From TrEMBL:
InterPro entries: Prenylated_rab_accept_PRA1. Belongs to the PRA1 family. GO terms for biological process: vesicle-mediated transport. It is a multi-pass membrane protein. This is PRA1 family protein. May be involved in both secretory and endocytic intracellular trafficking in the endosomal/prevacuolar compartments. Keywords: Membrane, Transmembrane, Transmembrane helix, Transport. It comes from Eutrema salsugineum. GO terms for cellular component: endoplasmic reticulum; membrane. Pfam families: PRA1. It is found in: Endomembrane system; Membrane.
């Protein structure tokens, strides 16, 4: 895949739609074969490729850095967990999986309440939905839960007097991620995995027609 022709918006869209249930790459693979890019175009291509291929590793790395920075502030750790959950809700597969498992759990206690949490029916025209697919969580658009968890995390950070420390930890984790994605050379396995996931995405789009 030629990552030079992939825009940053396409990478963000792919990260939003891709499956995040796959386990992270091994420790040995994640910390091997480092080299500086030879040009600015090579750096951009490598950065986009690694951000997509090692997405789960980078998410875990961010949580690990936040945990170390906030280890003396338990309330701020809970706020960071809420932030991580709100970010995870931005991914389609995570939001859909969470919604199904939560509704399945509620159904054991109250089938009537679980039925109300089902997403509304979307009309279909010529095999495609009439509007862009909207992801629902517990019967509400997912942005509602993203706003709720982000607000709760900000309140906890202010209560623990650790907002600036959290921002510093977030900035540190982002710098570490960009540095790793810049110097980690893409291997053949990453390229083959990208092609395989592209094929699955295309096949899934055809099956929805």
């Amino acid at each position: 895949m030629d990552w030079d022709n992939v825009a940053a918006e396409d990478v963000i869209e792919a990260l939003r739609e891709v499956e995040w249930s796959t386990p992270p790459r091994s420790f040995g693979e994640f910390f091997s074969r480092f080299a500086f890019p030879r040009s600015f175009s090579k750096w951009k291509s490598r950065l986009k490729c690694n951000l997509y291929y090692y997405r789960t590793n980078y998410f875990i790395l961010m949580i690990f850095v936040l945990g170390l920075a906030l280890i003396t502030r338990p309330l701020a750790i809970v706020g960071a967990a809420f932030t991580a959950l709100s970010i995870a809700f931005l991914n389609d597969s995570f939001a859909a999986t969470f919604n199904e498992k939560f509704i399945r759990t509620i159904r054991h206690f109250s089938p009537h309440l679980a039925a109300k949490m089902r997403p509304p029916h979307m009309p279909v025209i010529r095999g495609r939905s009439a509007a862009r697919k909207t992801v629902y969580v517990c019967g509400k658009p997912r942005w509602v839960f993203v706003v709720i968890f982000l607000t709760a995390s900000l309140v906890m950070w202010f209560s623990s007097c650790g907002l600036l420390w959290v921002l510093y930890a977030l900035l540190t984790s982002l710098v570490v991620i960009v540095l790793h994605a810049s110097v980690r050379t893409p291997n053949l396995k990453a390229r083959l995995n990208t092609f395989r996931e592209e094929f699955r995405a295309v096949w899934r789009n055809y099956s929805e027609l």
